[in-house]
Prior knowledge:
This protein is α/β, with parallel strands linked by helices. The protein has helices at residues 6-12, 14-21, 32-44, 70-74, 79-90, 108-112, 125-138, 165-168, 179-182, 186-204, 277-284, 323-338, and strands at residues 24-28, 48-53, 95-100, 117-120, 142-148, 151-157, 212-217, 222-227, 256-258, 264-267, 289-293, 297-302, 305-310, 315-318. It has an 8-stranded mixed β-sheet, with helices on both faces. Strands 9-10-14-13-12-11 form a 6-stranded antiparallel β-sheet, with helices on one face. Strand 7 (212-217) and strand 8 form a beta hairpin. The protein is globular, with a radius of gyration of 20 Å.
Amino acid sequence: MINRYQKQALFLGNNEQEQLQQAHVLIIGAGALGSANAEMLARAGAGTITIVDRDYVEYSNLHRQHLYTEADAMNKLPKAVAAKNRLQQINSEITINSHIVDINASNIEAFVQGQSIIIDATDNFETRMVVNDAAVKQGVPFIFGACVASYGLTFSIIPGKTPCLHCLMNHLPLDGMTCDTVGVIDPIVQIIASFQVTQALKLLTGHELVPMLQSIDIWKNEKADITIATMKNKHCPTCGEKATYPYLSFENQTKTDVLCGRDAVQIRPGISLTLSLDRLKESLQSFVTQVTVNPYLLSCTFEDYRIVIFKDGRAIIHGTHDSKRARVVYNRIIQCYSL
């Protein structure tokens, strides 16, 4: 037994610690919940951690996303890259994989294959439902987590045993609140991540879980544990008797997303693209300003908008919540690249 895990192994057991060190953990999203989950699991010795995230580090992240630094924000490093860099410094004995990718129906199943467990650390409903469908279809446990303001909740989805997210979505009490409208404080992030990691440790070391939704408001000192076993819907299109996995149909997904907690819209191209960032920089130089390029993305200013474009053609348009206006700006950029 490696000495670094000695105290943990005293609690879990040596065999259980070895099981953990053989585990493959997929973390979808490397924001607040994702970075907290990733750090705890890396320190615990989870053997392989794969981080998938579409975004890059900004200064507004730093109050709640502990893996990142001001240097990461200044350099606009993709979160998946910055997280991997930091986690390798924390634990060089485990394997860290990182992918700068927007999860959708066309790619989720390839990421889920071979995983021991999936940690939900996304910030939008659509992606969660895509991951939920893939997890249930492939029989991989999926640990849901969400937080906003001072409130958070979590529960574990065990395919074939518990209700899935599709069964429960009408019972989740977030009332449409987002970080953009009411904000979020760091303590609730750490608590929900701790709940998620605890459930992950149990599952990865062979313990049975009670199907339970845990919710807490740390500001109001309110907590509730709700048994969810009876909420399983036999007609659920994801985990019911005639499952169709509706969110794995790519045509059911939008191509634009208003991003939580930011005055910004993400746009995904309708076709597969691989951009040359150097060529993009040359094509834009006559009408954009404040151009920054790193190996992963290009950032520039056009009119009143700050635009970040990734190699796969995805873009984040800052300065608007209007998807139509964001698409106009995006098309202008891509047209210049195509000339």
